[in-house]
Amino acid sequence: MPNGISTQTEIECCDTHEIHRDLLQKVNAAMPDEEEISDLSDLFKVFGDSTRLKILFVLFEEEVCVCDLAELLNMTQSAISHQLKVLKQSKLVGSRREGKSVFYSLADDHVRSIIAQGREHIEE
Questions:
Q1: pLDDT tens-digit profile of 9-40?
Q2: What is the pTM of this model?
Q3: Is 92 buried (19+), middle (13-18) or exposed (0-12) by CB count in 10 A?
């Protein structure tokens, strides 16, 4: 039982119905507001697409353009552009223009940390 959490598939319930008001007050005081919960939920939805994750893994290594991503991932530039738009709207990637090319990169190191923690979790 790691971290005191049961790994059984069946959920165990209390034998009696008792509300622990002091615990509930503490939890309510720490609970983020609905807007923050919604924003966080939206962010995690972005990570729920395998193509977007592949793009992020590419950007961990190099700053690349849409053409490079399309070649690496064997996809159309249109499909890559669509996914980059989602990633950019979520502030996970940034871009810069160099002549006729637009290069994409990770927005910041938070992106790398989020993915690293997710990988660590699934490898436990």
A1: 788 998 899 999 999 999 999 999 999 999 99
A2: 0.81
A3: buried
Please report, for the domain that includes residue 40, its CATH number.
1.10.10.10
Which residues pair with residue 97 across a beta bridge? 102
Report how far residue 71's alpha carbon sits from residue 43's, in angstroms, rounded to the nearest whole number.
Answer: 27
Instruction: Report the C-alpha gap between 103 and 96 in whole angstroms.
Output: 5
In angstroms, rounded to a whole number, what is the distance separating the alpha carbons of residues 55 and 64?
Answer: 10
Q: Does residue 11 lie in a domain region?
A: no
Least confident piece of the model among 4-18, 48-62, 66-80 = 4-18
By the 10 Å C-beta count (0-12 exposed, 13-18 middle, 19+ buried), 102 is classed as: middle
Query: What's the confidence (pLDDT) of residue 97?
Result: 95
- Total structural domains within the chain: 1
Instruction: Quote the domain boundaries for residue 79.
Output: 35-122
